[in-house]
Amino acid sequence: MDPERKQSKAADPAGLARFFADCRQQSLALVKGLSDADATVQSMDDASPAKWHLAHTTWFFEEFILGAHAPGYQPHDERFRYLFNSYYEAVGPRHPRPRRGMLTRPTLGEVLAYREHVDAALFPLLQTGLPEAAAQLVELGVHHEQQHQELLLTDLLHLFAQNPLRPAYRPVAAGTPLSAVQRPGWVASDGGIVEVGHAGDGFNFDCETPRHRTLLQPHALSTHLVTNREWCEFIRDGGYTDPRLWLSDGWRTVQAEQWNAPMYWENRDGAWTQMTLAGEQPLAPEAPVCHVSFFEADAYARWAGKRLPTEFEWEAAAASQSVTGNFADSGKFRPQPAADDAQAPLTQLYGDVWEWTASPYIAYPGFRTAPGAVGEYNGKFMNGQFVLRGGSCATPAGHVRATYRNFFYPHQRWQFMGLRLAEDRP
């Protein structure tokens, strides 16, 4: 079935309850084995502690569902409304984001008790059925929690990378065997007017709509993602030291941050290693490069004599392929080399790494923010960021689709971010 045509789970109370329960259980599975310290420390302003992710996603359901649709509901702790609001100005004041790691209390155990309290209040509502608008908010809340499951993993990776012991979050999972170096080819498109954006009854975030027409020029996309081996060639050729390859803001960032390789790479006695969720590992040459910023991706494309695809070139190509790939459910939590029998013609469109595009994150024609606080979910971030497509090895399976738009600032690179090249065709 075309994923864009799936029925929304909000229309099926039993299905919505299962979706909610499965997601909440998966979040708990992700923090299994973490100490209270692991779940409390904040390694940088862009990251959040695992404990905060667990509490914030719970706050979402308490604030937007239970507060409005559960008569007589008693909050687990009134103070949590301040502690675990993220950026919803309409809800009220909140604890400053850079200081989330200072919250030694509540403990991880107390946060888990908070989750149990909210779940116990919400399940009866799901079983008896909610008004349509409320059910849609629950479905949004589950997808919101899936986003935070990915953030929880990437934030833990950043945290553990600061530790000289290079601790592992999970043991190494088996990778994809590779019999030969992949030889990327190109898939050409004549372009033309295409329809992009979400359509049908399935779930979507508001930034994926309205569906509309856009014009694509003739172009081609690389069949493969850029690999670590290819990125090493960029480094050896002085890619990080040649200002002609970089956007002005990118060159300024490279100098200020002293970048000379992707995030988490270290050169040990002439060999590259990479910090992963399985601890520090030898660099896998044929795996997709990841943890590179938009600035780096753009510079690499210029060095290669190519460019980054637009988000609509990517979407038009991805719409005909099934949404399968190396997602978080594989348990590998690391980009894998393309398998010899990988889906063709474009391999690894989904999973492994989010793919940077050349497109700024802006509103589609006719976009309108939703009324109320949930209108702050996406629209107010449509400024100064770039779109990524396809999901990563930390994205929950079933979460993404061809129209899904992720977005980050051009200097950020702690997510599993990589790239696919594009070129113009006559």
Helix-strand blueprint:
Elements: H1 13-30, H2 50-69, H3 80-83, H4 108-128, H5 132-161, E1 186-189, E2 192-196, E3 212-216, E4 219-222, H6 228-236, H7 248-257, E5 265-268, E6 271-276, E7 279-282, H8 294-303, H9 311-318, E8 354-360, E9 386-389, E10 406-408, E11 417-418, E12 422-424
Parallel strand pairs: 8-11
Antiparallel strand pairs: 1-4, 2-3, 4-12, 5-6, 6-7, 8-9, 9-10
Helix pairs in contact: 1-4, 1-5, 2-4, 2-5
Describe the overall structure.
The protein starts with 12 loop residues before the first helix and ends with a strand. It is 31% helix and 12% strand. The protein is an alpha+beta fold. The model is unreliable at 1-5 (pLDDT under 50). The strands form four sheets. It has a four-stranded mixed β-sheet with strand order 10-9-8-11. A three-stranded antiparallel β-sheet has the order 1-4-12, with no helix packed on it. The protein folds into two domains: 3-161; 186-424, Alpha-Beta Complex (paralog of FGE (formylglycine-generating enzyme)).
